[in-house]
Amino acid sequence: xxxxxxxxxxxxxxxxxxxxxxxxxxxxxxxxxxxxxxxxxxxxxxxxxxxxxxxxxxxxxxxxxxxxxxxxxxxxxxxxxxxxxxxxxxxxxxxxxxxxxxxxxxxxxxxxxxxxxxxxxxxxxxxxxxxxxxxxxxxxxxxxxxxxxxxxxxxxxxxxxxxxxxxxxxxxxxxxxxxxxxxxxxxxxxxxxxxxxxxxxxxxxxxxxxxxxxxxxxxxxx
Length: 222
Hints:
Number of strands: 8
Oligomer: single chain
Strand order of the largest sheet: 5-4-1-6-7-8
Structural class: alpha/beta
Order of helices and strands: EEHHHHEHEHEHEHEEH
Distance between the termini: 7 Å
Largest sheet: 6 strands, parallel
Helix content: 40-55%
Number of helices: 9
Shape: globular
């Protein structure tokens, strides 16, 4: 893995994924899919395993091919919205310190979820919300397309070469790489393919992310 050099003098920007990167929502997602599966008389564990590797519409096509996918999605959205209102969420260690230390206008959220849910989760965990949020409704093409990260950079007035993407998932990493940005991985035991740097936890990355925004990120590493 190579840490990419930072161009001196240029303002730097950080683009964060949300679920799995800043917010720990694994248990919430499992619970939502369990309730959804039970409504359709399905095995919750089997449905969750499919949902982990597919998008919702693809999940429905595989586990309930005879049901209207729009109805299935409406039920899922209803359950997700209720979970935002009543579920227990936690921010990853270091998230609050990091986001509160970043300069205003120098960071954004790029999520495959919807903005109202992100705002709800951030309110419940006490995290600050940036000016720019690119969500599922903002783009026609989601991750791993580069579109979400390119749009966030455009809204910040940033060039891709001055952006750092912080991700935990392969589709998000690929999205950032395709956008021509520096990509660091967090919260995984092993590095996701393609990341320029890997950190086992968000906490471990805090100092280096802040250094990136100040133009002090490390150059090439063996």
